[in-house]
């Protein structure tokens, strides 16, 4: 009687186990380091805004405050009309963003669907304007503002911000409109929708993530813009947050108010952070759709 040897199961060798473990360990560390490096200026300003003056001027540098104070924020709103500056920035940014979207969305839809005469020339002109540095328009805009007597007027900022943001708005929205299914629009036309009804009731709700993403980009530009706001607005009650923060002064000409400046930076950045967090889902949808469609 012969005995057949039983096959002994062999365990497969694991290949790349060390590499996988190393990757699993290093990846979170690298991500944390990149996040800390990116957020370090904002974190430094946040910590400085809560430091007492002795810790701010201390040598060696006090990186993490042991004594906290809110005096810098209190001083920011008591010595200067900072609520007015916030209103000015919000009004100019919201208005220019709304006008950019109101003009840019129909223009982008017309270029994407209606195919007007000279479409290539129009697109090339819009692209060239997008690539043109805005600072080079400063002297020309200054002459126009003086000729129209728009100095110390909200329109002196709303019109240039809208003009600068409009080409980007058109290009971004046009790429989204091109990817929409045309059959849906054809069905709406059969049901009696005209072009305006089609755009307002069907196309724009479908591209809401793209509208939110584009609107936030234009809003951030208008909120942070400095050169035009510094030149076109000279009255104290019409200044925006970047100009007001840059012009904060100390008790004497030799004192630099690092604490109030840091507090002004935090106050000026907080609305943008809240805006992005509030529309985070829409922004992700817009960027994901744009990446897939691109």
Key descriptive features of the protein:
mainly alpha
Can you give a write-up of this model?
- The chain has helices spanning 17-49, 53-56, 71-79, 82-114, 119-131, 138-148, 155-178, 182-190, 195-206, 208-224, 227-232, 241-246, 258-278, 280-293.
- The protein has 14 helices and no strands.
- With 294 residues, it is mainly α.
- The longest helix is centred in the N-terminal third of the chain and has 33 residues, at 17-49.
End-to-end gap: 72 Å
What global shape is seen? Answer: globular
> Could you estimate the helical fraction of the residues in percent?
over 70%
- Based on secondary structure, the structural category is mainly alpha
How many helical elements? 14
Largest sheet: none
Order of helices and strands: HHHHHHHHHHHHHH
Mean pLDDT value: 83
Structural Rg: 27 Å
Poorly predicted runs of 5 or more residues: none
Proportion in β-strands:
under 5%
Total DSSP E strands: 0
């Amino acid at each position: 009687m012969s005995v057949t040897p039983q096959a002994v199961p062999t365990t497969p060798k694991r290949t790349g186990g060390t590499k996988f473990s190393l990757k699993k360990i290093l990846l979170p560390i690298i991500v944390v380091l990149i996040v800390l490096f990116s957020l370090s200026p904002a974190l430094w300003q946040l910590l400085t805004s809560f430091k007492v003056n002795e810790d701010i001027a201390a040598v060696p540098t006090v990186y993490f405050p042991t004594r906290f104070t809110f005096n810098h924020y209190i001083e920011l709103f008591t010595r200067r009309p900072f609520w007015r500056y916030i209103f000015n920035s919000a009004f100019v940014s919201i208005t220019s963003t709304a006008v950019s979207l109101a003009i840019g969305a129909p223009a982008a839809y017309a270029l994407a669907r209606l195919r007007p005469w000279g479409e290539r020339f129009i697109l090339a002109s819009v692209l060239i304007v997008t690539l043109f540095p805005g600072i080079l328009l400063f002297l020309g805009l200054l002459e126009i503002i003086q000729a129209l007597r728009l100095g110390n007027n909200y329109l002196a900022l709303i019109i240039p911000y809208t003009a600068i943001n409009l080409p980007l708005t058109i290009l971004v929205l046009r790429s989204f409109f091109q990817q929409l299914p045309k059959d849906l629009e054809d069905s709406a036309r059969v049901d009696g929708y005209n072009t305006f009804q089609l755009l307002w009731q069907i196309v724009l709700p479908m591209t809401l993530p793209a509208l939110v993403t584009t609107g936030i980009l234009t809003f951030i530009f208008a909120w942070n813009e400095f050169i035009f706001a510094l030149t076109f607005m000279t009255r104290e009650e019409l200044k925006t947050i970047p100009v007001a923060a840059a012009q904060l002064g100390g008790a004497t000409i030799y004192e630099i108010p690092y604490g109030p400046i840091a507090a002004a930076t935090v106050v000026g950045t907080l609305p943008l952070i809240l805006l992005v967090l509030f529309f985070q889902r829409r922004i992700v949808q817009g960027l994901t759709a744009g990446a897939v469609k691109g």
